[in-house]
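Technical annex, item 7. During the second reporting period the consortium partners agreed on a shared format for inverse folding records so that results from different sites could be compared directly. Each record opens with the tokenized structure and is followed by the designed sequence. A conforming record, contributed by the partner at site C, is shown below for reference.
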């Protein structure tokens, strides 16, 4: 996988850059600070990660909470874990925000003589049965010969802040100690229970467990693999509450329906329970959703009667995936469950809307994309999160790479109400240049469209630049719409397409002619303010969302007035100011005027007044006294739904069809408005279309149950979509793929389907006939394609989807590829171009083969071609083989894999060309008939010479061929070919390139 492979390499190779060793830090190096919000230290002066909490008790100070951490030291554009030391935070009460920071308590090379500097990953401090403190940490073993040099060491101290010494003098756990393993030995978590010590560790989905004696270093039994943890990735944390053991961990079972995370690169915190510290474990769910950093790491314990969870995020000033900072929040329990469950953690501080005035309105839009479900290395929400990183990882962007990329993709924004827009800023990402047809490249071209009952190009765009360094700006004449999309034509090399990736897409609002500061009336105790304000654009007025500064209960505690500021979505000139009047809800004396109610519809707007999704109907009530209302809403003949003490109420309208919504509002005095009604027409179901092929012509039909079919569209190959008016004929004798789709009157489009018009094989064939064959193979790797054999493309640097290849864990000595044609063809030569990524003699990877040969089907068996020239094995040029002409409907190439004497390398081919050379059609009349003679089947072929002079005639069948010299004008050439079986399938015979069919027959 493109982006995934590169970024994972950065994650695995964490800590490659190290700084020079420093002198051991002491507890005296600490300093104090006060901060009451997360992250604990969030000013960007120090980045901390992988928190491990510990409660330390002493007669002098009582209970204190220590949070041991790693130290992230990566630069802002470095995608690598630069971690050279461990530190800690200490507090007597997290709620006070008073902390002591120990920035450098231990460095691996200063404690473990067998360790290299750096790689100070997640560890944990526990208090041993002897009262001393033990710090279990992963370090890189300097002199290890193992495939992975990570090991777990143990440091010991009489104080929770050190100084620390090596408890063992070597690794506690490595790939050879105390027993062999092949995992990455990091992320230890430890539970001390009396004289028993339990250690869990492991990453990349591999978790191990081993018990130790009370000396904290002598194994008890053997290490065990741990199962039962759905989606386990890394960062285990073992603890006990009551009689139940809990194991929290960073989980990643990515996918659209995942309860953990949709993206590969993010993790949730999940957990499992057991009745024993050694398991077995039962998965219980997710307690912390993905945070702003790709990694996540839990630590959970009870402190002063309150359970706490510590974790890290990228939320500090200047933070990032490799510049993380530790946070702390409360853990709540559901003790009605057995065993008690951990409730979803409520992260603090609560996320607030960014009220900075700016023209961008994308952050308020709903995102849809063409490639749902999105490949799990990407994240759709990154499109409009207003975050652009200096060196992004895949989840920091939306992308489309799959290995086989289509020619066009799109992203779409939808708002609940009409917006006035006039510009765009888009940030493309690439790992390949344009024109390569592989990897991820900036699009060849793109454009912006808006919805106005149908998709229309925005008027007078300035330009559509495709740079990949910073935002690409486009301005256009202002339009009013609820939907806008960017349509990308992928970069190609002539036959294959690159993927597209976008880090951020901003849509810029047209700036208002004027915004009047609104006068707002609320009742005593009412803190919700109107969600939209009227904004004037020339002669039109739109109701645009507004985010108000928070108001407090004191502001609305009694009748009076106050002023509040708000940020109007897309208004860059500054905030607006509103005067808020607070009234008494009981002020109804003499009120005989009914309120009014207005209905506003929102949803995914279609064409002709239809919605293409569930629609939302908002009833806005207004009363002359300014008080709140009782608003009743109903859909069709369903019972009314009433919202009390409201200024507006919403109701969802679902289901395809035509609906009616009715609303009334009643004020505090009991006056009821006249009913307001709105028709809501929904067609959220795509039409269906089918195609039938006959005589190399495609007939398409379509149906739609709700709004009806508007049109059918088709495209031949990569051509433009064209409105269908009748059967589609092939433009020439070659094979063609026809795409087709239906569009209903609501604007829904069916998923495009394809049908293949086969090549016309009736004429004499010359040149490469590989593209009109059906390819098969003995085996094809999942990331390769057998269709690449005859896609008529020869890219200089093919992607995996542009190869046929056979790499797998077990590779045989021979493999084969095969072409089948619908009739026998006279073949004279073939060319193959091989591909490799390994040298000969390795027995691994993909290497050039030792040899290969061509075979044809003679009607009953495979036979080697005769008169063949040399069979080359080049991986940089085509290897052409000529042979005695053979007429057949099948040919295959059998490839002998390269070997190291024990195992075989895989083989791969970029293109296989097979060449025909059939004579021009002769004036002959051909008939063919299947017959039974003595219980055996035969194919009898007769060819009459219709020319005015003698001619040579060659009869060809799947069961042999016969040549006749100088058949007289008007004369016949006849031969009965034995099938050598009791039955013959229907087939075709030829004479001088002229075909005749015969029926199936069983004798």
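Designed sequence (site C submission):
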């Amino acid at each position: 996988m493109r982006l995934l492979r590169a970024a994972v390499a950065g994650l695995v190779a964490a800590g490659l850059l190290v700084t020079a060793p420093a002198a051991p830090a002491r507890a005296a190096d600490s300093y104090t600070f006060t901060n009451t919000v997360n992250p604990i230290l969030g000013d960007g002066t120090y980045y901390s990660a992988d928190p491990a909490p510990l409660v330390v008790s002493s007669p002098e100070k009582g209970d204190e909470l220590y949070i041991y951490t790693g130290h992230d030291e990566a630069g802002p554009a470095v995608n690598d874990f630069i971690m050279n030391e461990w530190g800690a935070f200490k507090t007597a009460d997290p709620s006070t925000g008073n902390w002591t920071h120990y920035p450098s308590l231990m460095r691996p090379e200063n404690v473990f003589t067998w360790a290299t500097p750096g790689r100070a990953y997640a560890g944990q401090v526990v208090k041993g049965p002897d009262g001393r403190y033990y710090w279990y940490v992963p370090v890189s073993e300097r002199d290890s010969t193992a495939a992975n040099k990570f090991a777990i060491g143990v440091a010991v101290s009489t104080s929770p802040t050190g100084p620390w010494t090596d408890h063992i003098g070597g690794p506690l756990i490595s790939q050879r100690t105390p027993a062999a393993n092949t995992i990455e030995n990091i992320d230890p978590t430890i539970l001390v229970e009396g004289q028993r010590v339990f250690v869990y560790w492991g990453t990349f989905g591999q978790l191990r467990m081993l018990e130790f004696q009370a000396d904290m270093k002598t194994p008890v039994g053997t290490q065990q693999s741990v199962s039962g943890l759905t989606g386990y990735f890394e960062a285990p944390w073992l603890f006990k509450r009551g009689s139940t053991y809990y194991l929290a961990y960073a989980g990643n079972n990515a996918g659209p329906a995942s309860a953990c995370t949709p993206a590969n690169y993010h993790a949730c915190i999940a957990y499992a329970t057991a009745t024993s510290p050694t398991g077995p474990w039962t998965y219980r769910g997710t307690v912390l959703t993905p945070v702003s950093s790709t990694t996540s790491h839990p630590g959970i314990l009870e402190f002063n009667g309150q359970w706490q969870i510590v974790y890290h995020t990228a939320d500090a000033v200047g933070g990032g995936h490799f510049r993380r900072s530790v946070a702390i929040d409360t853990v709540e329990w559901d003790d009605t469950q057995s065993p008690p469950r951990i409730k979803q953690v409520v992260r603090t501080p609560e996320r607030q809307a960014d009220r900075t005035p700016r023209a961008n309105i994308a952050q308020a839009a709903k995102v849809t994309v063409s490639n749902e479900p999105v490949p799990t290395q990407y994240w759709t929400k990154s499109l409009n999160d207003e975050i652009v990183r200096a060196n992004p990882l895949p989840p920091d962007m939306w992308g489309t790479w799959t290995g086989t990329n289509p020619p066009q993709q799109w992203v779409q924004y939808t708002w609940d109400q009409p917006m006035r827009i006039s510009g765009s800023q888009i940030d493309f990402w690439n790992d390949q240049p344009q024109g390569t047809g592989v990897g991820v490249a900036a699009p060849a071209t793109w454009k912006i469209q808006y919805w106005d009952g149908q998709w229309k190009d925005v008027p007078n765009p300035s330009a559509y630049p495709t740079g990949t360094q910073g935002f690409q700006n486009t301005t256009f004449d202002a339009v009013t719409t609820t939907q806008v999309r960017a349509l990308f034509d992928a970069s190609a090399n002539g036959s294959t397409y690159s993927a597209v990736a976008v880090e951020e897409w901003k849509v810029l609002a047209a700036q208002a002619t004027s915004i009047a500061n609104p006068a707002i009336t609320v009742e005593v105790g009412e803190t919700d303010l109107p969600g939209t304000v009227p904004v004037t654009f020339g002669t039109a007025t739109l109701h645009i969302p507004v985010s108000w500064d928070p108001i407090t209960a004191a502001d609305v505690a009694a009748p009076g007035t106050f002023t509040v500021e708000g940020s109007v979505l897309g208004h860059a000139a500054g905030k607006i100011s509103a005067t808020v009047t607070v009234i008494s809800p009981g002020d109804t004396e003499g009120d005989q005027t009914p309120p009014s109610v207005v209905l506003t519809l929102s949803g995914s707007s279609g064409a002709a007044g239809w919605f293409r999704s569930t629609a939302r109907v908002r009833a806005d009530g207004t009363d002359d006294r300014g008080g709140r209302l009782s608003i009743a809403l109903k859909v069709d003949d369903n019972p009314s739904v009433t919202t009390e003490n409201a200024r507006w109420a919403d109701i969802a309208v679902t289901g395809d069809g035509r609906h009616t919504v009715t609303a009334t509002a009643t004020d505090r005095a009991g006056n009821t408005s006249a009913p307001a009604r709105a028709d809501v027409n929904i067609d959220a179901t795509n039409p269906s279309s089918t195609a039938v092929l006959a005589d190399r012509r495609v007939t398409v039909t379509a149906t739609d149950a709700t709004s009806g079919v508007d049109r059918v569209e088709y495209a031949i190959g990569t051509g433009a979509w064209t409105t269908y008016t009748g059967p589609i004929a092939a433009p020439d004798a070659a094979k063609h793929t026809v795409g087709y789709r239906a569009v209903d009157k609501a604007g829904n489009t069916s998923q495009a389907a394809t049908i293949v018009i086969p090549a016309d094989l009736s004429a004499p064939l010359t040149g490469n006939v590989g593209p009109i064959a059906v390819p098969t193979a003995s085996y094809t790797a999942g990331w390769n394609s057998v269709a690449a054999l005859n896609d008529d493309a020869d890219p200089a640097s093919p992607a995996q989807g542009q190869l046929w290849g056979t790499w797998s864990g077990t590779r045989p000595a021979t493999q084969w590829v095969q072409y089948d044609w619908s009739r026998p063809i006279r073949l004279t030569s073939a060319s193959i171009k091989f591909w490799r990524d390994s040298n000969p003699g390795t027995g691994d990877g993909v290497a050039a083969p030792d040899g290969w040969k061509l075979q044809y089907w003679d009607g009953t068996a495979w036979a080697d071609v005769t008169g063949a020239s040399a069979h080359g094995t080049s991986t940089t040029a085509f290897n052409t083989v000529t042979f005695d002409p053979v007429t057949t409907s099948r040919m295959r190439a059998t490839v002998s894999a390269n070997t190291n004497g024990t195992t075989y390398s895989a083989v791969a081919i970029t293109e296989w060309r097979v060449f025909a050379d059939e004579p021009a059609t002769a004036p002959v009349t051909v008939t063919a008939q299947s017959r039974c003679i003595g219980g055996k089947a035969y194919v009898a072929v007769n060819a009459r010479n219709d020319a005015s002079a003698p001619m040579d005639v060659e009869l060809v069948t799947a069961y042999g061929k016969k040549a006749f010299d100088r058949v007289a004008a008007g004369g016949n050439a006849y031969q009965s070919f034995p099938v050598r079986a009791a039955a013959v399938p229907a087939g075709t015979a030829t004479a001088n390139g002229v075909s005749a069919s015969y029926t199936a027959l069983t004798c």
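The domain at 924-1002 is CATH 2.60.40 (Immunoglobulin-like). Residues 1-26 have pLDDT under 50 and may be disordered. All partners now use this format for quarterly exchanges.
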